[in-house]
Write a structure and sequence with these properties.
This protein is an alpha+beta fold. It has two domains: about 20-45 and about 80-160 and about 350-490, Sandwich (Immunoglobulin-like); about 165-345, von Willebrand factor, type A domain (Rossmann fold, 3-Layer(aba) Sandwich), CATH 3.40.50. Helix content is about 30%, strand content about 25%. The chain is built from 14 helices and 17 strands. The protein has helices at about 25-30, 90-100, 115-120, 180-195, 225-235, 245-255, 280-290, 310-320, 330-340, 340-345, 435-440, 445-460, 465-475, 485-490; strands at about 20, 80-85, 130-140, 145-155, 165-170, 200-205, 210-220, 265-270, 295-300, 325, 350-360, 365-370, 370-375, 385, 390-400, 410-420, 425-435. Strands 2, 11, 13, 14, 16 and 17 form a six-stranded antiparallel β-sheet that branches. A six-stranded mixed β-sheet has the order 7-6-5-8-9-10, with helices on both faces. Strand 6 and strand 7 form a beta hairpin.
């Protein structure tokens, strides 16, 4: 993926936040009563090769490319399709945090800006159960004709009580897991055990050079089930690593105990080191991708440690598995992700979300901080959205000439998705003029810009980038407490390249 272009200008004082919920309904509230999962789903073909710079991919257009109004069709608005990666893929910022806390300079290719927007919370009000809401934020930059644009697609809050679950742990017990990784693995199982309910089913397979099924079809008695906790404490690290076989056995177990109307998840916990058997990331990922049609999604948990961790393998496998990707830099992080944010990492509120934006004819995507975008919807892979969660799209759009910008022109955003159990097509749309957007308050944009500036400074570290990010963090805080913004400010000054002024 291409590097995102750093936003170098600060936003002016105009701030906007406009939200509109879809028509009310609670499809899931009824579907949770045990409706079966269809045998087929919105299985998506592997994405094509990365699009050319004019289409963007984890970046944006080439900011230096010429862009003139001459030759543009004034009767043809600009229609783009966006992807932010799965909204609960959050491994990158935690890996970076671990490295910075150890005084290690993170590699730029580990910094996936859209995962920072997933991990650090940007708050939006929830729509009614079964719906999604769209929020649009627009602000002027210090450059005429450039506009900061942030979109939030917010899901409804998690339904309580939730559906029963069938969880299959695929636990790496290879020798490389000894020490911190095995502690984090145990902590993950224990955190998930806290979130289980009576009637949930737990399977578990440990793997190194061979597989060992340690739980099969175990019905838990409630939170902190003794058998699950005992299993967590019993795992030990030794031997080589045959990740492919471990996943294969895990999916076989998950299939044997699959339940219609249940949340069916495979939880892979590993340091990502595959050194025995099939080690090609794509071949391993196919094991998880095939399960998508059965509604069994993969949650990948990276156990580190950061300087030796195989991020590419784990990111690829979990992307193919259509579920969350998280990283643990400590046992405490397991509690945060699998107790406090359990629904975000384990459930699906909307399947195959597609986001479309229509801009005035004279605008183009200038800088894009999502995973990918294109003028061709077939090039963009739709993503699932968890409950109590939001997809965040942060970008800069630019006019071919500032003088042609008409405040009465509009921006339209459409989100389309399928309900997760009954596969009904749903849609929500928001249309606002530039003037309306610019005139409205938008505190969420300030935080989004601060998070982006932090991530971009990590990719291209310099005193100017650090100073700009720190200024945007303070601007976003606006005198109020925000522990997440305090965290990223503290991490920036730990970067080995940072020099105290």
């Amino acid at each position: 993926m291409k590097n995102v272009i750093l936003v170098g200008s600060a936003a002016l004082s105009l701030v906007v936040a406009v939200g509109l919920a879809a028509c009310s309904g609670s499809e899931l509230s009824g579907a949770y009563q045990g409706a079966p999962e269809p045998p087929g789903g919105d299985v998506v073909a592997p994405p094509p090769p990365p699009p050319p710079p004019s289409e963007g991919s984890d970046a944006g257009t080439d900011a230096a490319a010429p862009f003139a109004c001459e030759g543009l069709d004034k009767d043809s608005p600009v229609i783009l399709y966006l992807s932010a990666d799965d909204s609960n893929s959050m491994g990158s910022p935690v890996q970076i945090r671990e490295l910075l806390n150890k005084g290690i300079t993170p590699s730029a290719n580990l910094v996936r800006t859209y995962e920072f927007l997933n991990y650090y919370r940007i708050q939006y009000p929830a729509p009614p159960t079964g719906d999604l809401s769209i929020f649009a934020h627009l602000g002027e930059t210090q450059v005429a004709g450039e506009l900061d644009l942030q979109l939030g697609v917010r899901s409804f809050d998690a339904v309580k009580p939730r559906r029963p679950m069938t969880i299959t742990f695929v636990l790496d017990t290879s020798g490389s897991m000894d020490g911190e990784p095995i502690d984090r693995e145990r902590a993950t199982v224990e955190a998930i055990a806290k979130s289980l309910a009576e009637g949930d089913i737990v399977n578990a397979v440990t793997w190194n050079t061979s597989n060992n099924i340690v739980l099969s079809g175990h019905k838990v008695t409630g939170p902190n089930d003794p058998a699950v906790l005992a299993m967590a404490q019993s795992i030990q690290a030794s031997g080589g690593t045959d990740l492919s076989n471990g996943l294969k056995t895990g999916y076989e177990l998950a299939g044997q105990h699959y339940g219609t109307g249940r949340i069916n998840r495979v939880i892979l916990i590993s340091d990502g080191g595959a050194n025995v058997g099939v080690t090609d990331e794509d071949l391993i990922g196919l094991q998880s991708k095939d399960a998508d049609k059965e509604g069994i999604y993969l949650v990948g948990v990276g156990a580190g440690p950061g300087e030796n961790y195989n991020d590419l393998l784990m990111d690829t496998v979990t992307d193919k598995g259509r579920g969350a990707y998280v990283y643990l830099d400590s046992p405490a992080e397991a509690e945060r992700m699998f107790v406090d944010r359990f629904d975000e990492t384990m459930e699906v509120a909307a399947r195959g979300v597609r986001v479309e934006i229509t801009l005035p004819w004279y605008m183009r995507m200038y800088k894009f901080y999502g995973e990918e975008y294109s003028t061709n919807p077939e090039e963009i892979e739709p993503q699932h959205l968890a409950p109590s969660d939001a997809m965040i799209f942060n970008q800069v759009v630019k006019a071919c000439d500032a003088s042609v910008v008409d405040p009465n022109d509009s921006i339209t955003v459409v989100a389309r998705w399928k309900t997760p159990l009954t596969y009904l097509d749903r849609e929500v749309k928001v249309t606002m003029t530039l003037a309306e957007l610019l005139a409205a308050p938008k505190p969420q944009l300030a935080k989004g810009k601060a998070i982006v500036a932090y991530a971009e400074a990590l990719k291209n570290p310099s005193q100017e980038a650090f100073a700009s990010a720190l200024a945007l963090i303070e601007e976003a805080k606006a005198g109020a407490a925000d522990p997440e913004l305090d965290e990223i400010a503290a991490l920036l000054v730990k970067h080995p390249a940072f020099v105290q002024p």
